[in-house]
Amino acid sequence: ACNGESLKKEDVKGFAVLVAPLLVSAGEQNVQYREVMASCALELARLARTSCPPALAEAAEARLAAAKASAEKEEGDNGQEEDALQECLAVLSREEEVAEASAETSAEAAALPAEAEGVVEERAAPVQQALALPYVAKA
Questions:
Q1: CA distances for 112 relative to 13, 120, 121, 123, angstroms
Q2: CB atoms within 10 A of CB 74
Q3: What is the pLDDT along the chain (139 residues), one digit of tens a residue?
Q4: 3-state class of 81 per DSSP?
Q5: CB–CB of 47/41 below 8 Å?
Q6: What's the rounded Cα separation, in Å, for the pair 84 and 41?
Q7: If DSSP codes are grouped into helix, strand and coil, which group holds residue 79?
Q8: Which of 25, 60, 89, 130 has minimal Cβ neighbours within 10 Å of its Cβ?
Q9: HEC string of 6-72?
Q10: Interacting residues of 119 by C-beta distance below 8 A, sequence separation 6+
């Protein structure tokens, strides 16, 4: 992702591993730094959420909790950091929802053949019987 190149999906994991600890410690920095780090986490999640390690979501959750717990807002803080962190967590949790839904669908699909087997045999019986009848040509 240097020299004007775009970040590739295969690079996301490496960057996410580096961004996570920076995101946790971002509270010690100025508002612009915190917004940039939150935006980085969000863009990594958007680009390849399946490549993001759990540490990124954990860091985003921790930073969001700290930001919400902060009693006073710094000058120039318009909530952009919190918005980016919330969206990052939403993007990352979507993958978990998709994975859970996929697992449920797979389990249901695995159960279908056993249930459908009896139905297929029931419906096939009349056809098999008809096929067993001798062919009579009409004159």
A1: 37, 12, 14, 16
A2: 11
A3: 555 678 888 899 999 999 999 999 998 899 999 999 999 999 999 999 999 999 999 999 999 999 888 867 777 788 899 999 999 999 999 855 555 555 555 565 566 555 555 555 566 666 556 565 555 555 5
A4: helix
A5: no
A6: 8
A7: coil
A8: 130
A9: CCCHHHHHHHHHHHHHHHHHHHHCCHHHHHHHHHHHHHHHHHHHHHCCHHHHHHHHHHHHHHHHCCC
A10: none
Dist. CA 62–CA 72, nearest whole Å: 18
User: Is 23 exposed, middle or buried, given 0-12, 13-18 or 19+ CB atoms closer than 10 A?
Assistant: buried
Q: Which amino acid is at 139?
A: A
Q: Identify the residue whose tokens are 């996570």.
A: 20
CB atoms within 10 A of CB 51: 18
Among 120, 67, 121, residue whose Cα is nearest residue 89: 67
Cβ-Cβ contacts under 8 Å for 12 (sequence gap 6 or more): 44, 47, 48, 51, 52
Residue 91 neighbours by CB under 8 Å, 6+ apart: 42, 45, 46, 49
**What single DSSP character describes residue 77?**
-
- Residue pair 51/9 in contact (Cβ under 8 Å)? The answer is yes
- Tokens 């803080």 map to which residue? 77
